Amino acid sequence: MTTNAAATENFKAARDHLVGLQHDYDTAKASFEWPRFEEFNFALDWFDHLATQPESKDRNALVIVDQDGPETRRTFAEMSQRSNQVANWLRSLGVKRQDRVMVMLNNQVELWESMLACIKLGAVIAPTTVMLGAADLDDRTQRAEVSWVIANAGDAAKFGDVPRELTVIQVGDEDAAQQSHPTHFWPDSFEAPTDFTPDAITRADETLLLYFTSGTSSKAKLVEHTHTSYPVGHLTTMYWIGLEPGDVHLNVAAPGWAKHAWSNFFAPWIAGATVFLYNYERFDAKALMHQMSKEGVTSFCAPPTVWRMLIQADLSQMSNPPRKLVAAGEPLNPEVISQVENAWGTQIRDGFGQTESSLQVGNTPGQPVKAGSMGRPLPGMDVVLIDPATDEIGDVGEMCLKLDPRPVGLTVGYYGDPERNTDAFRDGYYHTGDIAERDADGYLTYVGRSDDVFKASDYRLSPFELESAVIEHPAVAEVAVVPSPDPIRLAVPKAYVVLAAGWEPMPRPRRPSSSTAARHWHPTSAFVVSSSMTCPRPCLARFVASTCASARTRSMCPTAVPAMPAPSSPTRTLPPCAADACPRAPRCRARPHEVIRRPGAAHSQEESMPQARKNSDPIAEAGRQWAAHGWAEAATGMTAVVSVVRVHQLLMARIETALKPFGITFSRFELLALLTFSRSRALPMNKVSARLQVHPASVTNTVDRLVADGLVERRPNPDDGRGTLVSVTDQGITLVHEAAKALNEVFTDLGLDTPQQEQLLDLCSAYRRSAGDLT
């Protein structure tokens, strides 16, 4: 029942104002004012209102379709009545206002029933992913002060090892999955009354949600939201997506992640739209598009991983594709946007928000979309860019929200963490920690986290932007960009590139053509890739790069590529691995500077590289030439460096040959092995990157391919609202064990006896220790 008619009317007026101005951004931005309440309860004052209106009460509020056939459909009226039952039942069990309830469910109807019921009761919801184990649950129940848990039987069992005093509400099996805590069973809720009367008003500033999200410390941050910061704040999210009454909205997200509440709960139900879910074991683009057509999906939101997999399928099979397309979770590469637009005639619109807020910046319906831009600040969001070094407001800097007036869609802070709150809310702004650039039209382009960007000459460069430019080339399978020290320019960007299958390199660098590359690549840093160094280990790359840096001038390195004129060629230049920039002699057979050549393309005589004399060691000859040119003091070091590089090439060739029958590269094997050997056989993406010493962008691309092959699964990371947890599948584990047998034949036959292997290991360890790679 609706308990606050004035709140309902004020909220509806704000909703209708934005819906009516969906295609008029300027007017919406100038005229919108947040509705502000002393009292507000989303479930009672808004959802129940929709459940009583003639135009919406019989409309589907929720549709869930499972891959194996079962379907669940609930109208607004049915969901209102059912949530009343659940609220009455929970209250009879002892759930009180502001009690902390951990909701740990999959995409199933009980999740939505639970959330609506808890909102009606005034209980605090702690959404939690089913991926968590007992240790994480122990920590989170303590920090969030949880006293109630709602979970399926399989997940309820995990709480048997959680010492905190809890009451478990078990969905599904009616045999208690654990014996440590009192258990109640969900079917009993159907006996409760269907009319609900709240025991008190709901203050707008009461806590409603507690979300765990990533932090710089080992423990996740605990983000606190009120009965207005998400329920009212997601008016901006609704406006960004373009949702309106009657839409059918599909959002690909897992429960426990804030984006699930954004687009599977608040934004569509604010609009009076239908929430549609399609549950599947393994991603199938064709099946997903079939369901979208069958259910008449009009609005679709998905993370970039899903979009990248979708474009591998025939997008034209959809005769009535969604009219509203958005992406969230991480910036989307322009190439994906282009392919979807060509097939469906609609652009994917990017946006930016955080667990801490509703959508702050977005490309809104009907407005020009600039490639690579995440759009403009949403109505009600006053975004400024502050230089982290000078604290000055400008066109490049940390994205900050003005706190006067404070946007409704912003967290009240981090629960129990005054120090972090002081840092995030200071000088009249909320600091996001994300860097962006604003153009003359007010569009913002995501640059990166504040600790990712680096400066070259007088330019701020973003690894993501550079990687986005390079990855467009069809020859590039994986790429990671890092800064390389430069005595004049402070740093220059270097790219580590893995070639796609079926491509091979050819000599002679070419000029960049893409406008993206032209904007961000400093010309003198445009080196080209060597096929023989497709996947260098980071410690080796640091070894070679540091040796190159010790050279007196860049011209000493015969592999350096001269500065290039303004771009005009239609061929993309690909930067090199750091190992390719080593001071290698002209006679080296490894062909240090190369560009990508399509299979079968012939080399011209001009392109051919000098070959070493017969029966001579080209590396030893390079050392002699180095000494002869006046650099005798460095000749031995140079020869050692190049020898290490060459040995790496030889070993990698054997390793790749051993792995070829299994259809994977060594980098993919390493990732699979890391997951297989971990205790839970799953790790967060950031830990995968750290343990493999590989840039996150390369890990992302590698995981995409392993997901497509069914070797790993990718899910939202419960400790990081914008991160990902990767787990190895049974198929992946089997492959690791089979491939390891082939690799062991290489490892046991290095051509060195055991004492020599131990000596080699000692030398490598000594260098790694001196370089700071070991402690």
From TrEMBL:
SMART domains: HTH_MARR. Its EC number is 6.2.1.1. The keyword Transcription regulation applies. Pfam families: AMP-binding, AMP-binding_C, MarR_2. It is an enzyme of class 6 (ligase). Transmembrane segments: none annotated. PROSITE patterns: AMP_BINDING, HTH_MARR_1, HTH_MARR_2. It comes from the Bacteria. This is Acetyl-coenzyme A synthetase.
